[in-house]
TrEMBL record, chain A:
It holds the Pfam family ABC_tran. InterPro entries: AAA+_ATPase, ABC_SmlMolc_Importer, ABC_transporter-like_ATP-bd, ABC_transporter-like_CS, Mo/tungstate-bd_C_term_dom, P-loop_NTPase, Sulph_transpt1, TOBE-like. Belongs to the ABC transporter superfamily. This is Sulfate ABC transporter ATP-binding protein. Keywords: ATP-binding, Cell membrane, Hydrolase, Membrane, Nucleotide-binding, Sulfate transport, Translocase, Transport. Gene3D superfamilies: P-loop containing nucleotide triphosphate hydrolases (3.40.50.300). GO terms for molecular function: ABC-type sulfate transporter activity; ATP binding; ATP hydrolysis activity. Residues 3-237 form the ABC transporter domain. Coiled coil: none annotated. It is an enzyme of class 3 (hydrolase). The lineage of its organism: Bacteria, Pseudomonadati, Pseudomonadota, Alphaproteobacteria, Hyphomicrobiales. It comes from Mesorhizobium waimense.
UniProtKB/TrEMBL annotation, chain B:
Keywords: Cell inner membrane, Cell membrane, Membrane, Sulfate transport, Transmembrane, Transmembrane helix, Transport. The lineage of its organism: Bacteria, Pseudomonadati, Pseudomonadota, Alphaproteobacteria, Hyphomicrobiales. The chain crosses the membrane at residues 29-55, 76-100, 120-141, 148-170, 254-276. Pfam families: BPD_transp_1. The complex is composed of two ATP-binding proteins (CysA), two transmembrane proteins (CysT and CysW) and a solute-binding protein (CysP). One of its GO terms (molecular function) is ABC-type sulfate transporter activity. It is a multi-pass membrane protein. NCBIfam families: 3a0106s02, permease_CysW. It comes from the Bacteria. It comes from Mesorhizobium waimense. The gene is cysW. This is Sulfate transport system permease protein CysW.
Length: 346, 294
């Protein structure tokens, strides 16, 4: 099922949580809504589900305008952040709930509901736990039951709110791979919310980066990481360093010297230079480079991350050096970003 | 822990560190004071009640209870409780639902208003009904013209009882529902349940122990209420006398055995309520812990 979010605005008590958001989700796609807290990602998910109504704009499921439909009519599978399992029901009853509350001929007989619940438990690898209560399950198991319950109603769209948020790192990684497998096996159009970029980049077909109620960028992991289209995305995804620079006639200047980078199409004036700390070229001599004194250095896995003071103490940037690089304290390091991007000064 | 389901429902036991534990004699004195107080003010009166009731033997006791006026008082009390408790369940659940699950103007006002019967003297609440429904009251003439009798009859007693008991169920449920939030209901709705199914299969089971606890307290009060009922009942023997009113009448007539026999029934009700309440608390302590305060 394709989902189209068209110019949606959402206000809570006149306070806007989403500004004019549009998004096309393809059928069978696995999409991540990624952003810091307060970016509106959960609001967008709840709007798609029908747990909230848009103040303006519409949401289409296929060609159908779903925004006027209630959550029951939309037939979406929603997995809540804290699972919201019914604590007084067994695992099997939780999974069967969505079938049990149906009316008339669409409601399967009790035996069929039980069979479906067991089948789904097999799918989420929890066979044999039918009679358990939610309180008797671990966090990861609850997460799986919540997913099985959401899938039991054969939803058009599967929506997950911070699906791994409450789990520890180990279980998180495991479930992440497992969710990808389930998605590939069932082919549901799936949207999940996360604030964990690693999770989003690894798991999703496309990532929607959000900030302050707006979509900053939509793209594959490669697009988002390699060609961020705003300072926010540059800063939010992966490591980044930035320096205030000046553009003059297509050349980039740092303070009073050119740094050997040219931006022929950039307008002259103040700008911010963004680059990845690991994507720099170390230079020996310095004619046209960025040079600085090492202020601090940390060993991070198999690289050394150093903080450079550029031009006295006014600016600090981080770059990565090979572990065996002889940059001790107070020694000077000269470098030039290999890949970089200019954004207008804020 | 962020997950509401893993939250332990064990009561919190604080380990007693040596630094805050009083010395043995101090502890003994404190306990003696507490027990003496309980004994004089609670246990002794209970013993007296049963002692007086049985003072002239079991025969006199059963005879006192079998008298027509007493039996009609018992019937009336049961009737009043049977009407007012269900009314309060409906009201309590509606109010708690509205307060815990929605945002609306006047919410704080409604919350305060629910507590009103706790803070106002029951006599006043009775008088309010007299002023409203009495012959000289606001609605008196209209009621008379339409042949509706409220005051000095069962409807008045029920109204007064509903008034004094209406905080019980609501007060138990509001904190419980607020703590549980909307998550489970949203989950049920997203799975296709309608409002009624959501209430019946999800909301109600989540609050059932709190509800039962509230109903228990509400019932005890409904059967034991004296002040408000006394004002509106008119004390017509065999017609508008509830058990507490009947106790007073018998006592004023120097019928000690009769008075204490009926009183012993009320005391028995109190004991049963206490036992049930304790059992409930033992089993579902934390679920109702949030609602303690009376």
């Amino acid at each position: 099922m394709e989902v189209r979010v068209a110019n949606v605005r959402k206000e809570f008590d006149r306070f806007p949580a989403l500004h004019d958001v549009s998004l096309d989700i393809k059928s069978g796609e696995l999409i991540a809504l990624l952003g810091p807290s307060g970016s509106g990602k959960t609001t967008l998910l709840r709007l798609i589900a029908g747990l909230e109504r848009p103040t303006k704009g519409a949401i289409f499921f296929g060609d159908e305008d779903a925004s006027q439909k209630s959550i029951q009519e939309r037939n979406v599978g929603f997995v809540f952040q804290h699972y919201a399992l019914f604590r007084h029901m067994t695992v099997a009853d939780n999974i069967g709930f969505g079938l049990k509350v149906r009316h008339g001929p669409s409601r399967p007989p009790a035996q069929e509901i039980r069979r479906r619940a067991s089948e789904l438990l097999d799918l989420v690898q929890l066979s044999g736990l039918e009679k358990r209560y939610p309180a008797q399950l671990s966090g990861g198991q609850r997460q799986r039951v919540a997913l099985a319950r959401a899938m039991a109603i054969e939803p058009k769209v599967l929506l997950l709110d911070e699906p791994f948020g409450a789990l520890d790192a180990q279980v998180r990684r495991e479930l992440r791979r497992w969710l990808r497998d389930i998605h590939d096996a069932t082919g549901h159009t799936t949207v999940f919310v996360t604030h964990d970029q690693e999770e989003a980049l690894e798991l999703a077909d496309r990532v929607v980066v959000m900030s302050q109620g707006r979509i900053e960028q939509v793209g594959t992991a490669d697009e988002i990481y390699d060609t961020p289209n705003s300072p926010f995305v540059y800063g939010f995804i992966g490591e980044s360093s930035s320096l205030p620079v000046k553009v003059e006639n297509g050349d980039i200047w740092l303070a009073d010297r050119p740094i050997g980078l040219s931006a022929p199409h950039a307008a002259s004036g103040e700008a911010m230079l963004y680059f990845r700390p690991h994507d720099v070229e170390l230079l020996d001599g310095c004619s046209g480079c960025i040079a600085g004194t090492v202020a601090a250095s940390r060993r991070v896995a198999d690289t050394r991350r150093v903080e450079l003071e550029i031009g006295g103490e006014r600016q600090r940037v981080e770059i990565e050096l090979p572990v065996d690089h002889p940059a001790a304290q107070k020694s000077r390091v000269a470098f030039r970003p290999r890949r970089w991007k200019l954004f207008p000064a804020a | 822990m962020a997950d509401p389901e893993i939250k332990s429902y064990e009561p919190h036991h604080e380990s007693q560190s040596a630094a805050v534990t009083e010395s043995r004699p101090v502890r003994a004195v404190l306990m003696a004071v507490a027990f003496a107080f309980l004994g004089v003010f609670l246990v002794l009166p209970l013993i007296v009640v049963f002692n007086e009731a049985l003072a002239k033997g079991v025969g006199a006791y059963t005879e006192a209870l079998a008298s027509p006026d007493t039996r009609s008082a018992i019937r009336l009390t049961l009737l009043v409780a049977a009407i007012s408790v269900p009314l309060n369940i409906v009201f309590g659940i509606s109010a708690a639902w509205a307060i815990a699950k929605f945002e609306f103007k006047g919410k704080a006002f409604l919350t305060t208003l629910i507590d009103l019967p706790f803070s106002v003297s029951p006599v006043i609440s009775g008088l309010v009904y007299v002023l409203l429904f009495g012959a000289q009251g606001l609605l008196g003439a209209w009621l008379k013209a339409h042949g509706i009798v409220i005051l000095f009859a069962v409807p008045g007693i029920v109204l007064a009882t509903v008034f004094v008991t209406f905080p019980f169920v609501a007060r138990e449920l509001i904190p419980l529902m607020q703590e549980q939030g909307n998550g489970d209901e949203e989950a049920a709705l997203s799975l296709g349940a309608n409002g009624w199914q959501t209430f019946w299969y999800v909301t109600l089971p989540n609050v059932k122990w709190g509800l039962l606890y509230g109903v228990l307290l509400c019932n005890a009060r409904a059967m034991g209420e004296f002040g408000a009922v006394s004002v509106v009942s008119g004390h017509i023997r065999g017609l508008t006398n509830t058990m507490p009113l009947h106790v007073e009448i018998l006592y004023n007539e120097y019928n000690a055995v009769g008075a204490f026999a009926v009183a012993s029934l009320l005391a028995g009700l109190a004991l049963v309520t206490l036992v049930l309440k304790t059992l409930l608390e033992m089993r579902y302590g934390a679920e109702i812990a949030a609602t303690r305060g009376h």
